[in-house]
Amino acid sequence: MTSLALAWGILLAGAAFAPPVQAAVAPPTAVPALMVAGYSVDGATYSKWNVNRARLGNPISSKSCDATSCSQRFQKGHILWTQRTGAQMVLNYAIGARYSAAGWTRGYLGFPTGDEFGLTVRGGAVQNFQNGYVYWSPATGARVVTGAIKGYYAANRYERGFLGYPRSEEAAVRNGVRQDFEGGRVYWSGSTGTVSTTGGHIQTYYENKGGPESYLGMPAGPKTAWQGGYYQRFQGGVITWAQTTGPKSIDAGHFAAWSGDFGRYGWPTADTWKDAAGTHTQFEKGIITTGAPPVAAPGGPVYPFTGVTATEASVVLYGDSQLDGDSWSEQGARAMGFTDQAAHLAYGGMGYSTFSSWSGGTGWTAVEQGLLPFPGGTPGLVLVSMGGNDATTLKSDAQVIADSSALWAKLKLMYPQSRIVINGVMSRSDPSHDRRRHIDAVLAANAARQGVTFISVAGLASDANAQYLDSVHMSQAGHNAVAPLYTAKLAAALGR
User: Fold this and answer.
1) What is the per-residue burial (b if ≥16 Cβ within 10 Å, else e) of 296-327?
2) Hey, how many other C-beta atoms are within 10 angstroms of the C-beta on 10?
3) Angle at CA 136, nearest 5°, toward 134 and 142?
4) What is the pTM of this model?
């Protein structure tokens, strides 16, 4: 197998990394046929075999057909045909064996949509099927890549990217699945999408803590180089690493406050801990504490604000994972002159009525209980972006209306002189996002009743032809594409 794969790799050295998908081939009007070794080879099967005789050898059975497909066995493999996929070869090597173990044409991979071909990376090989790829390399063997992980693998340049070849197949973990690759481990869950951890201190620390089974839960963002070290978001917190302090697990809210003022705090020197006085994270130059008794104000306590003082040039961002990266929301705020992020409070999986372990509550209850590090002072703009997870978890309209009303009223008390703008639910225009567009409309109607400034973003992703990483999360390129359209809406809402 190795020498054959290497030979194919040389022939295909200039090919693109994506496995080719062959178009369906209709049976020709003039059907060629040939008797070979006592068996007839005809039609599309003949056309495929005639140019691949050396790879397939002679037929050793007659062609067998049912209502939708045909197959014929040869010395070195099979030719399988359907109207949709055309005639494709499955060879008697490692990929063919893995396909057979997966149930052949009746298994979850379906029919082949292209022939097995060699890859230029270490003499490997791949074959594309209706529902996944089968990859092979001498070091990893034959492995299936399918589903959302397949899409993530494709987005990261297949075997030519940092992941390399798959080393295992999907295995179930709490709330999702994982798959090991040469360059890291890829996780998928419905709440976080598809995210990888890469070899190194953060992955080792995460696995030692118990991985997805631990309080950290699933990864919720990629490992990111930052300030000479790294960080990676998880459902239950953030793992940071620096040469001087090593890996540490810190509260997601503390990370949001710290990352906005790194120079003030330095790197964390201990994992976040909780006691009767609140939640604490120790840094090289100071400590962040939340959950302490609230700040007293005329008429009663308002909120346990942090020591950060927001100004007219500040924006406070509060929402779900749509705020990850350089999001369309913050790009819009920046374009409007709000260049200081007094707080960037983004919690994966959270909605107005949907609980997130990152925040310790729902979008409303986490604020109600004073769990999140909102800054003091008077920010020029407060932007709220959530609701998508309420759509995913099928929260009732009545519940979303009640919780959004309570949150908006609380924010008005916290920032009585600030401009508060509520974003709707970012979505595409296709049927898969019907529920997201519905929640956007529910929030728009409620905002009108409450006298709150609201920006509908329903279908905006389609208007911008934005790129997605999975069914609900946009890539950074997607955020960049949406940002100009959103900025225009924000300018109108602010009367600019």
Assistant:
1) eeeeeebbbbbebebeeebbbbbbbbbbbbeb
2) 10
3) 65
4) 0.51
Comparing C-alpha atoms, which of 308, 221, 332, 305 is closest to residue 260? 308
Residue pLDDT, tens place only, 446-460: 999 888 999 999 999
Give the Cα separation of 375 and 381 in Å (integer): 12
In this structure, are residues 351 and 362 in contact, taking their beta carbons and an 8 Å threshold?
Answer: yes
- Cα-based angle 129, 133, 136 (whole degrees, multiple of 5): 125
Give residue 140's Cα distance to chain centre: 25
Can you give the pLDDT at residue 276?
Answer: 73
CB 79 within 8 A of CB 88: yes
Mean pLDDT of all residues in 469-476? 91
Dihedrals phi, psi of 206, to nearest 5 degrees: -60, -45
State residue 257's pLDDT score.
Answer: 82
* Digit-coded pLDDT (tens) for 359-377: 889 999 999 999 999 999 9
Phi-psi region of 217 (alpha: psi -120 to 50; beta: other; left: phi over 0): left
Per-chain mean pLDDT for the chain:
88
132: helix, coil or strand?
A: strand
Residues with Cβ within 8 Å of 150's Cβ and at least 6 positions away in sequence, in order, are 132, 133
**Which tens digits make up the pLDDT trace of 154-191?**
888 889 988 899 999 988 888 789 898 998 888 888 77
Residue 3 has pLDDT above 60, yes or no: no
> How far is 258 from 222, CA to CA, in rounded Å?
19
Rounded to whole angstroms, the Cα distance separating 37 from 295 reads 90
DSSP string, 180-245: EETTEEEEEETTTEEEEEETTHHHHHHHHHTGGGSTT-SB-S--EEETTEEEEEETTEEEEEETTT
